[in-house]
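Shall we go through a protein fold together, starting from nothing but its sequence? Please make up or recall a protein chain and show it to me in full. Go ahead whenever you are ready, and we will take it from there.
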Amino acid sequence: MRFVHTADWQLGMTRYFLNGEAQPRYSAARRDAVAELGRVAADTGAEFVVVAGDVFEHNQLAPRDVSQSLEAMRTIGVPVYLLPGNHDPLDASSVYTSPLFVAECPDNVSVLDRAGVREVRPGLELVAAPWTSKAPSSDPVAGVLEGLSGDGVTRVVVGHGGVDIFVPDKERPSLIRLAALEAAVDRGAVHYVALGDKHSRMQVGSTGRIWYSGSPEVTNYDDIEMDPGHVLIVDIDEDDPARPVTVEPRKVGRWRFVTLRRGVDSDRDVADLDINLDLLPDKERTVVRLALTGSLTVTDKAALDTCLDKYARLFAALRVEDKQSDIAVVPADGEFDDLGIGGFAASAVDELVATARSDGDAADDARAALALLLRLSDRGVA
């Protein structure tokens, strides 16, 4: 038996740092990753798809987002089982019970809206642990495991949330207890645990049967999400009483959120950064966060600004992270001697240079004025 394990689609997600038209393209890419599951299922012969929580970004979605999401699910073709998670819990305002969702939900899509066992076919069951609020008062999975025994039925647990071994706060009531999962696996009551909440692909514990699939499309930078953009193809050998499991990742995501940390202390460093940014492929689907440190002359800082302006127009987003960046701008000796100006204007430039070298409140304004002067004189072209 083969199926697709995925989670954390978070359809309707927005990212504040995306450039104007990049947000609609990013939203479309998240839906495209869902529709891509149809090809994955066909290529691998998957029997069904389980989505382990956070199908939607939240319960209050625009009607267009709901309709387009359901249409993407329709194209998958095989049965799709949706688990409400912490972003879209099955509460009074749930998107899953909205008139629009109910009216347009495709025949191949089912919501795992009750805790406990759901039969897929004779001999195969899903054990669902849906969230019914954003703040569960207990482990959302442990309760559905109670009473299950190794009776020859193949079972797949579908759960959502943080596992206790990854979280410092062990007293959080909503944590999933790994010991309970492994005990159910050990007694043969369940054979695979499909988890959602972590946006990176990750095995949990040592059984090889408990996994986070991660989000099928990236949601955060690569120093936070180590391995997003996958779904998992899960094989369970039902002919073997031990029900051995094989898990294979399949890449479906196309976007990247990249963090680049660079020291910039010279025009050579600025030129190297320009080359690195130029070499990044798929700029329309790439978000770049820069952490820049160093000390530059006004001329080199102007060249850096020109470089960043250029790539901000090419990437889906490019931003300098203020909290991780620190660039000192100090006018070099003789840096403004060849501007071809004299008299009052030259005296004004000398005064700006002196101010820019100070530590006073006006230093930043003076540096900005000098940088503008250089750019207007074509000295800041990267």
Q: What stands out?
A: Residues 2-251 form a domain with the Purple Acid Phosphatase; chain A, domain 2 fold (CATH 3.60.21.10). The first strand starts at residue 2 and ends at 6.
